[in-house]
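Researcher: Go.
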Amino acid sequence: MLLRLVVTASLFVFPAFGQPVEAPAGADASPSAQPVEAFASLPFVERAELSPDGTHMAGIFGVGGEQKIVIMPLMGRATKPVILGVPDGTQPGRMQWVNNDNIIVSLTGLQPIETERWYITRLLAINRLSGKYTKLLWDLNGQNAGDILSVPNDGSNEILVAGQSTIYTNMSGFWPTVYRVNVTNGKARKVVIGRDGVLDWGADHLGQVRIGLGFSDGGLTSRLIYRRSNDEAFRVVDKANHKRDEVLSVPFLYLPGGDNALVMRDNDAGRTSIFEVDLVKQQTVKTIFEPEQGEVEGAIISDDGKLLGAYTTDKKNSIFWFDPDLAKLQANLNKSVPSARVYIESMSADQSKMLVRVDSAETPGRIYFYDTKVGVLQKIADVNGKLGSKKLSPVKLVLYKARDGLEIEAVLTTPKGKDAKNLPFIVMPHGGPWAHDGLSYDYWAQFLASRGYVVMQPNFRGSTGYGTPFLDKGKGQMGFAMQDDITDGVKWAVDQGIADPKRVCIVGASYGGYAAMWGIAKDPDLYKCAISISGVAALRREVNDFGGKLRGNLYKMQWQEMTPDFNAVSPINAIARIKAPLLLIHGKRDVTVDHVQSAKMYSAMTKAGKAVEFVSLPLADHYFARQADRVTLLSAMAQFLTKHNPAD
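Model: Structure:
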């Protein structure tokens, strides 16, 4: 079927706050004309799910600077919308339709327990007809009581959820029990009792609990227990010692009629692929999918338990469809909007109606409704109503060689309307460090480019997305070759005539914040300034914080593999070498990297007489989920850069 891209009137209008309006065609569309608030706006539609019958959409919406849980009718239906505020201090996570009338949403919030702060996860069920919500398993006192295992596709009101009832590891309730929960009244009954060491459970689409993952020795060893159905007893089918780089074959989809399942693991080239395995014999049956480029990052599974597609980390972040009809549809979608990334975000149960997201690295994008019987993409909303769908600064992938010859890929954003010649330059390493940047919309990079800076985001050795061999090249190299890869990216940009060598700054968050601080210590003459957002200044302190965590020994081992000496590559121990001014930004609600990391770096820099500024945000978390915090973040960055490395 041929597709027609039709920008029609929106399929719904919010009665309370209206549809975001795109700037008129005659307005100045240049990025530099846009205020900070435009880039800092929460996505109007952050993520969305289509109801099984395709008549309603549920999603997380940014409205008036706040996140809302919204259920909206489509196709001009007169059903009253449901709009609920997200509870203060919580962040919505997974959202899923249980049936045509009910959705479930996971909420994660910071809560003090004993002497520590914990992220607590709970589930909320919302009925679209009444607009009322039901708390699920909120009476449990554990950290996680919101692990959704299975949502049967039979239209019933019951789901499988695993939950802990205590935070104490020496009590039996720490190991999650599996409950069958009714989403309309919150009633729950136990299906599988928690057992010692088993922290994670897995179920099939029929609601049968099939596997459990057990951990011991602080996560350094693990085991997989398995059964074919609820009528059988669990048995250990696989073990792994992570000190020997062993990994379990954990299934993500169970095949009917036996013990075979699909798993994601490395192929012979070290790239994540999909295989069919016999769980009992622990033997590979066949290879299902090996991407030609990149590796598998996730799978798309139908409500009735069929593998429909796979997300890959190739240059276009493509979806590979196993379903021939969906593959054909994707090809037609790509042809209809050749200059953007088009992907199916959600489908009705019969796959006849879809939510389609169209975006690129140069635009926040739009959400469309698509009916296969009509063949028309109908606009629902712009993701960012203030920026609309106009292209911002151009983005491309570049390759350069590190000093040892290793090829590094980076994302390069150039200010719109400017030649990439001798421009002020920002290198922005990603967090993780086990992560990667690609050709997707990045509001930080686009904001900085709008202020006149070229932005490079290097995927240094140790980044994901390029296979295990590239990932392993980061072992022992934190603060060394990993940092050199960033430095070499700057030098490449200078050699290419892109960057003005006298106007280079380094900016990063989390691990990227560490790299920003370490960059001005390791290469003090390269950078004019640095901005560290939620960065780690004292590696030893950060790793010691893992001690109280369940898999603390595993986390410690992973970090110890990255560098032989934490103290030798910690920015807080190298302040004497720092010449460039440093801006520190950190949220007090950050439990990923403790706020004290930036506070101590600020104190040490001040004591040493170094140029340093500190923006402490009392309500911000690690991800700056609040729009007000995003505005403060971008404003502080812009002011600091204007002061120390002006673009003009």
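Model: The chain has four domains: 1-59+303-386, 87-248, 251-296, 395-644.
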